[in-house]
Amino acid sequence: MPIQRGNDDVSQAIDAARPAIERICAEVWELAELSLHEVHSSAVHIRELEAAGFTVTGVGAAGVPTAFVAEWRQGDGPKIGFLPEYDALPGLGNAAVPRQEARADGQTSGHGCGHNLLGAGLTGAAIAVKHAMQAANVPGTLRVYGCAAEEVEGAKVYMAREGLFNDLDACFHWHPAPIAAVINARMAANNSIKIEFHGRTAHAGIEPWQGRSALDAMEVAAHAINLMREHLEPTARTHYIYEAGGVAPNIVPDYARMWLKVRDADRARVNATTEWVRQIADGAALATQTRASVNVYYGLHDLLPNTPLAERMQAILERVGPPAWSEAEQAFARACQQEMGVAEKGLATNVIPLQKEPTIGGSSDVGDVSWCTPTMGVIMPTLPLGVSLHTWPVTACGGTSIGLKGALAAATVLAMTALDVLTDADLRRAARADFDRRTEGFTYVSPLPPEQTRPLGLPEWMNADGSAEAVEALGRSR
Ligand SMILES: [Zn+2]
Questions:
Q1: Which of the two ends of the chain, N or C, has the fewest CB atoms closer than 10 A to its terminal CB?
Q2: For residue 435, how far is its CA from the centre of ligand 1 (angstroms)?
């Protein structure tokens, strides 16, 4: 059974972590750094963890310059992981007001997925658990993984390839949302693919017959991918953009590039569809007398639930509940809803019953962690009901007390569940048995190609001198 804890002990621990949670929420919201560029945002987390007594063991962990690992240990005991993220999204910068309005400082990126809150809740939970462990003399290890670049080439997959999660007893995550629920769901596996076509340039008016259009090839490929959809199972998703398709209509384009994502319920289906995409690219090149190259540079696993952890977290979530909202916060949310044209229902005030592992079309690199160790997470309201992630109201609410309250409530649920895992051997055994049953006969194979030692989208300077030292120095320079 878990050690007897009054609510006082946990709320004292959360109180101790609260200033750090507040600072991370506010500073990372302000920074709004894009994926793989989160030099200062990761430094904010590192600063708070070091101040709380954690040791940073790896800046630039697993080949991702803005990732890190930090650890705190007291005696020999269970090992618990926390997965803060901190990357923002392009074009979703917004002032902290209930309408679409640019930030006064001109910052155009923003936390439209609420990762400023996500990171604060997880780093904050780890700091809170450390306080509670010290107060009650509970042995164990807390490890915080600075999960850079979740929106593009999430660092967790790089970390999983190096086995960084394998010795944990459990690992925790959360995500901002319109509702309060335990994430007892399967999320999709996916592959990120760049398809390049190489043709031959020519004057499009005088002698187009001399040219071979890479854009033609890309259009044939896109058409074939759209026809392929009919024959994929309903769990599949494919979506793409044209990244390059020529520079002027009077020049036959000799270069075109498509950025494509393939998602499905598991790795096997994703890999099968990816093979089909390779054939489509080759076919499109053949049809247009061009050349295709297909680069599957990143991928991730589906999310594996864990029943004992989900049930325990649900019980805790029902005790903690979503935040108590003020009338001003509800009014802010309703104003956002009015702007977005959705029902003016304000912010969630109830907890969703435990879900029976539905399959969700979205993906997360938490998936790869979940195949390495028992993993569970929670969603907490930080945005208005009926509003989708990756929209401006998420950024706006995330810069107000709405987002902060959601992060604090999430940190409370995560800290309480982590403390249960640390002190309840039966829960640990049950979580491990559930994990073993679900992964029987499974060997973790990284979706990353072996030659992909660092993310494809690293900024130029990081490729030139992206050493951990360089990134750390820049982070501290602020
Ligand atoms: Zn997100």
A1: N
A2: 25
